[in-house]
Design brief:
This protein is mostly beta strands and about 160 residues long. Helices cover about 10% and strands about 45% of the residues. It has two helices and eleven strands, in the order αββββββββββαβ. It has a six-stranded mixed sheet, with no helix packed on it. The protein is globular, with a radius of gyration of 16 Å.
Length: about 160
């Protein structure tokens, strides 16, 4: 029974012919996936449960990589220099900005993943935090693979 549930869950958020670039389960049991099509290198964001995709972006765009941007900030030097590594993949849809984050701060060895949803009209932010133990992939890869356009926005 457990194997069936996992397979069903995976199929609803990861389609055949896609590979996961970054994924995690949220603290309330939902899942976020950022997938890439193996056929045409398009990218898709999905959020939902094992039974239902609650939100998908961008849908059936022909060149969806242009809908997403990646930004980062890195400061080395460990605790003495308050080192940090901040990584974001973001997109806008219907008056909201979605910011997937993967961050590390040396002070306190604080590592966080999640998605922030920002209402562009009111600037109200909703932060949906991820469970680090369920994480697959890393946003740091976008720094080197030139897969997404690199932007300059930071979201802390």
């Amino acid at each position: 029974m457990l194997g069936f549930t996992t397979a069903s869950f995976a199929q609803s958020l990861i389609l055949p012919g896609e590979e996961v670039l970054f994924s995690f389960e949220t603290q309330n049991g939902k899942r976020l996936t950022l997938n890439k099509s193996k056929a045409d290198n398009n990218i898709v964001y999905r959020f939902g449960t094992k039974d239902k995709v609650e939100f998908e972006f961008p849908g059936k765009s022909k060149n969806s990589r242009k809908d997403f941007k990646y930004s980062f900030y890195m400061r080395g030097g460990g605790v003495q220099n308050e080192g940090m590594d901040l990584n974001y993949v973001y997109f806008s849809n219907n008056g909201f900005k979605y910011v997937i984050y993967d961050t590390y701060e040396a002070v306190g060895r604080k590592q966080e993943i999640g998605v922030k949803i920002i209402n562009l009209k009111t600037q109200k932010k909703t932060d949906i935090r991820g469970n680090l133990k369920t994480r697959k992939g890393s946003l740091i890869d976008f720094r080197f693979n030139k897969f997404l356009e690199i932007g300059d926005e930071l979201f802390e």
